[in-house]
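Case study 2.
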Amino acid sequence: MIREQRDYFRINDKVLLRTMAVSEQDALSHRIPYELTNTPGFALSNELSAIDKEGTQLLHAIADNNRDVEAYLKLLSRKIDCIANHFIAEQQGDTEQKPVEVTISEGGIAYYAQTRHEIESHIVIQMTLLPSQKNIIAFGKVMSSKLDNEQYL
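Prediction:
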């Protein structure tokens, strides 16, 4: 039996997705449009991630001295994350943004959209992963855009 080996991955999931056309210069310099970052949920999510990064070494040092204190601090962190995720979900509910099915692979990201981006144009994509509410912002170039059932793929 021959084992199939692939050098790529494929992820199918639902995310909250926003895209915007940007200039080639903005894409190459990774200049994020203000409209994508000017939301309370985005700022809160990024700030909590930064705090987690800052506290990692401290938490390891605490764990060396007292495992119970470390466990308790992790519980408090999870509690704060739950409250923040609820707040962010409420904020996104106000914008009526619905989860979109995406396929992410080594070759890029595929999704259905209401508006068409020109082939070879540059875009910025903001994906909010669910249920963690983690944000990913990526720049890319449109390689394909096909009309399929009144939406663009």
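The longest strand covers residues 10-22.
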